[in-house]
Amino acid sequence: MGERRHIITTCTRDCPNTCGLTATVEDGRLIRLSGDPGHPLTRGAACVKCARYVHRVYSPERVTHPMVRPSTKAPWRRATWDEVLDLIALRMTAIRDASGPEAILYYQGYGERTALKLLNRYFFNLFGGVTTTRGSLCGGTGQASQNLDFGERVSHDPLDHYNSASMILWARNPVSTNISLVPVIHDIRKRGGSVIVVDPAHSKTVPLATRHIRPKAGTDAFLAMAAAKLILAAGAEDRTFLAQHSAGAPEYLGILAQFSVEDLCQRSGVPVADAQLLAETLMRQKPTSILLGWGLHRHEHAHYSLRAIDALGAISGNIGIAGGGVSQGFEEYGPYDQHYWGDSLNPPRRSLRMPTIGEDILNAHEPPIRMIYVTASNPVCMAPNSGKVAQAFSQAEFVVYSGHFMDDTADHAHVFLPATTFLEEQDVMASYGHNYVGAVNQAIAPVGLCRSEFHMFHDLAVRFPFAERFRRPVRDWLHDLCAPLRAHGCDLDALANAAFRYPAPMVPYADKTFATPSGNYQFMTEFSPELLEKTDPAYPFRLLTIAPHGAICSERTMTEHTPLPVVILAPAEAARQGLAQGDTVTVRSAVGAIRATLRTQQGQRPDVLVAERGGWMKAGHGLNRLTRDLASLVGLGTPYYETCVAVEPSSGPPAPRILVVQHDEDAPGGNFCKSLERAGARLATVMPGKTKGAAEAHGLPQTPEEWDGLVVLGGAQHAGDDAGSPHFPALLHLMRAFDAARKPVAGICLGSQLLARAWGGTLRTMDAPEFGFIRFTPTDAARLDSVFHGVDAIPPLMSYHEDAFGLPQTATLLVRGDQCPNQCFRVGNASYGFQFHLEADAAIADNWIRLFRHRPANAKTAQYDEAFFRNLRADLPVLAEQSERFCRTIAENWLRLALRE
Ligand code: SF4
Fold first, then answer.
1. For atom 8 of ligand 1, which residue has the closest CA?
2. 67-137+348-501 domain in CATH 3.40.50.740?
3. Mean per-residue pLDDT for 88-97?
4. From CA 193, how far away is CA 535, in angstroms rounded?
5. CA 566 to centroid of ligand 1, rounded, Å
6. Average of per-residue pLDDT across 854-860
7. Does CATH number 3.40.1570.10 belong to domain 657-899?
8. Are 361 and 392 in contact (CB under 8 A)?
9. pLDDT digits over 776-815, tens only?
10. 156-327 homologous superfamily
11. Which GO terms describe its molecular function (predicted)?
């Protein structure tokens, strides 16, 4: 074991918990990431996403070199930093000079919100100011709504919730998104208090709660009003607060008087007993902390619900008292010197609305958007109406993307700037979930050639006349950016070892003064109930695209995606629709349609369809292909949950049933099988000799009768070794039987050798193994073959074999190689042999690289030296991405043979 170090740092991911973390590093390599027990608030807690982050840092799919391409149709190639920064500077200058600076859109996402991130916009402001964004994909509506009520949104310090006798988690799911609240929930329950979850969906927090109330999505205002009326009816309202510290109370009480409790509960879709429970809890288990979740924001008129819940807190006497309050979030950029955004350096520049970014880019004229520069975000995937966002991005002539992976937005880029993760950076991080500020201490050196965004802009600034205003060491910048922190006594050196609590009240509004025009709490005085009750019989389910439990939004890799996204419906509703768990369904909205796998979940409302957001479009997910691009009335938030959908059994011919024969754990179906599933196939995999099948030979069926196609995968076995693989004769027979029945066969690597053998081809061992991503050439026959339809060029494809074959006499060669000539052939009616591994995704290829690299070296493998592996690893993200596209086309075309199209 080498030198082991433990580095305290702070999680910078888009998560309110902002945990203090400990990075364990051995010989310069991150080996573990866990919660820092010394953090005063998060106290060693960390979520499931934390430990997994180590794999993300070293993922074979992570782009670790700058990449460039002349058009989005051209392949990526590695470039130097100087080359890409020169190119960006040249294009920025040319576009500004020709069309003005507003022809450039800077899209700064919420992926990371550290102190140094202020300087990203500062860079563009030094440049002259460009088009930016306004509004939010997340919590803007909540903040703006609470600003109307409280003057300035201030939340209770999370540690104050230990003073709560009860808690209402209103659309918040701490188990998945705010892990440090879980001990508070346990504490309240241990003390006999109630914890009520209000959520149309069944979240992972529900089992921790005393009760789950399930209002119709977006109708929380009615539920809050019903509970308020019950408190008023019981005479338990906080009269002093209403009389002395509030404005608009008579008007709000007038609004309440227009409805009966029964009417309000009916509008919210809950029994009156639920409103009674809320009211009783607020009256008898005081103080109650009410915590607002992010799902509440995602409606066009969400401010009504948010303000009605604030009002419930006010009427019940929970404002300004320890353990009470209606808490929504914290100002994460608050502890920094905000003048470094640099917005005052130029006249006001154009901004586009984030919630409708696709539409706004397309409608931008004078000047049109010619260039887009994206940091810390994946808007093509995450912004609503992805189809339109993709269209808008593809119209820009130059897109720069700073990120980690080849995701949906990267697909539209011309330059890919590989960004460091927070473990490779020095910075300072505040939170939107609590009051602590923590140091981001660099734990490891940047992976590959990755750079922090700060260093990217720093080195880009060198190419402009304002260079000297930007070029300063990180330490100096942090010193200045953190001036407000220093003014409050924070020593930046000490911060490196211990989080600092930014001065903010534990209990806001304790003195009952509010930053509203009247100085009092401001009740909502206008309410239009009909705006919360829109339904469309054609689309009976509200689509709730909730925060994933195991990922932060679209932070995932291509290989981590399941073939299809999972959507969740209440079991009774699924049965009513004639659907069952595991069915492939089509989810349709007014905007688009996707295919998904259905799951059922008890405890969920029947009129919602729930799905975890963030899956990529290119991986067959992309739920935002369904969502409408609207903006909320207050706060310019994104009302994702205004999307209503219909769920139907997947249309078209019955799903073809494909039998997959897998020979080796290390040689799974990868992209080929995922593509088949995404294209509508149902797969069943057998591992001969390992899959149980009493009536079948070695787990293989004896006839193709129940199947529509056969895939035979690779493996380390020799295709002629029947003694070692006694199922081979039966498999050869089966391959011929499928073809005779005009059912397509695909053999990959070993599978192709077996296919050749089944049709009379010869087997041989090559002089040396063929390994790596290799360029092959299609024959003229391939250009006419239906399986190669739509293939313009064959990208380099993974090879890993030492055995080869001579073509059967009746076979047609489709792809030729240099070292091994027979790379792909067609034989019989519809049987295809692929010697190359078109199915290999980055994870499979990475595993094979590891296995091959550790084989004993000999003269035959001398060419595979360290430089070979280094280059292969550096190019792997791009190679895997190109290979996946090729594989998808081939798999879809092959499946058409099974469908007899
Ligand atoms: S993702 Fe959130 S809960 Fe998980 S480690 Fe980071 S801040 Fe903590």
1. 19
2. yes
3. 98
4. 37
5. 23
6. 82
7. no
8. yes
9. 999 999 999 999 999 989 999 999 999 999 999 999 999 9
10. Dimethylsulfoxide Reductase, domain 2 (3.40.228.10)
11. iron-sulfur cluster binding; metal ion binding; molybdopterin cofactor binding; oxidoreductase activity
